[in-house]
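Extended Data, panel c. Modelled sequence:
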Amino acid sequence: MYLTPNMTVDALLTRGRQRLQQAARGAGSAGRAAGLDTELLLAQVLAIPRARLKSHPETAVEAGAAESFFALVERRAAGEPLAYLTGRREFWSLDLAVTPAVLIPRPETELLVERALALGPPGAACAADLGTGSGAIALALAHERPSWRIVATDVSAPALDVARANAAALGATGIEFLAGSWFGPLAGARFDLLVSNPPYVAADDPALGDPALAFEPALALTPPGRDALAALRLLARGAAAHLLPGGWLLLEHGTSQGPEVRAELVVAGFAHVRSHRDLAGHERMTEGRR
């Protein structure tokens, strides 16, 4: 993109917004979000609050900063998620670092946190977050229930690095991070709650055609093989061995997978099996009690 000397904040925002609108063909949510994305990217490069962009639109920006900004704009135009460009994502009102090593936390996953808080005891308890990624769920639970002992596992070492860094930045000291696949790191321990947002997108799901998903770790999106419910089945069938009597298993899943997940939990011997809908009205997670 051609740069002119001493471009102002306002000029950069205009050029950036036009580029993103062009990439989105000016339609849909991507086109409408172009202005906000542009402001967030420029604020990131200049290390200033977004409000200052609006209050000082006439400020001249150094050429190096302008080049860095337009480089980010081009990456956003190519479909790279904003969270990876800024390195931040809010979840449960917590400011989390994210990298391409972890799935970007989604608002709908907050339903899993809500249900865990509703089902778990208000006092001391033990909970495990299986496949923690950025640590979003574990950190939200630790924030709301500082008396809980929480274990967070992940098979990805880079993901655990991100989760540990988030815990350190937030001062969350009650979480133990363990490397390994699903129940592997638990070594026979039993918990009041097991929660997980596992990979559940089928390898042939048209949703994977979304360019943004190409930047997220496939390991966190799609289970190996052709069975989209493979990880969910494994968790449902193995959870009882790691739950205290009366303990709960909570699983996030795809919007059409509720009936199959409920069936898996019933076959595995769980009681009080029920699914809950997200704000969009889709069945998003299912719970069952040992």
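Residues 9-23 form the longest helix (15 residues). This feature is highlighted in the accompanying rendering.
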